[in-house]
Design brief:
Layout lengths: L1 E5 L6 H12 L3 E3 H10 L3 H11 L6 H12 L8 E4 L5 H13 L6 E6 L2 H14 L9 H15 L1 H9 L2 E5 L4 H12 L2
Parallel strand pairs: 1-3, 1-4, 2-3, 4-5
The protein binds adenosine monophosphate (AMP).
Length: 189
């Protein structure tokens, strides 16, 4: 099962991905998590990404495409994976399509998780409080910027995948377990 979770920051992609990892026994592939680890480890890639991430902009397609291509070659992805936070631009989606074709893989579904903008800002603000500001990009100003970037660069992927017939939409305003159940119904698992 190869899945994409698509949706704005704070909609619950990471939460759902972590639940589905256990239920479907496939790994979560979060480009945001991988980039944050690279920042913590002060690798050249992390150092290059930090400033861009801190202001809520997107890291280059080249960097994230490379991360994903390497990651899905690893043994634990043999039975599938859940992409969380990738692709985020049409160029990334095209790159993913090409990369999967080269690896002889296909995508099973793209799950769009929806929520209204006000809820997203307050959810991310709460996440900042709960984690004691562990994420430098979880403050209201940067969250608004990330939402703007989402609307401009990532939302077009909804139409992109709808056009390919792989898109399913679930309501991210429902309680966590209901969202999980809706995703599982959508993918027939
Ligand atoms: P996330 O944890 O998915 O919210 O990502 C946090 C930040 O990492 C984003 O605001 C971007 O700066 C960067 N990032 C994560 N995934 C991508 C991606 N697919 N393309 C570009 N930047 C990304």
């Amino acid at each position: 099962m190869r899945l994409i979770l698509l949706g704005p920051p704070g909609v619950g992609k990471g939460t759902q991905a972590k639940i589905l990892v256990d239920q479907l026994a496939i790994p979560q592939l979060s480009t945001g998590d991988i980039l944050r680890s690279a920042i913590a480890a002060k690798t050249p890639m992390g150092l290059a990404a930090k400033e861009v991430m801190d202001r809520g902009d997107l890291v280059s397609d080249e960097i994230v495409n490379g991360i994903v291509s390497e990651r899905i070659d690893q043994a634990d992805c043999a039975n599938g994976f859940i992409l969380d936070g990738f692709p985020r631009t049409v160029a990334q989606a095209d790159a993913l399509g090409t990369m999967l074709t080269h690896k002889g893989m296909t995508l099973d579904a793209v799950i769009e998780i929806t929520a209204d903008a006000g809820t997203l800002v307050s959810r991310v603000a709460n996440r900042a409080k709960e984690t004691g500001g562990a994420r430098a990009d979880d403050n209201v100003e940067v969250v608004r910027k990330r939402l703007e970037v989402y609307r401009e660069l990532t939302e077009p992927l909804v139409a992109y995948y709808r056009g390919k017939g792989t898109l399913k939409t679930v309501d991210g305003m429902a309680p966590v377990e209901e969202v999980t159940a809706a995703i599982r119904r959508a993918i027939g698992r």
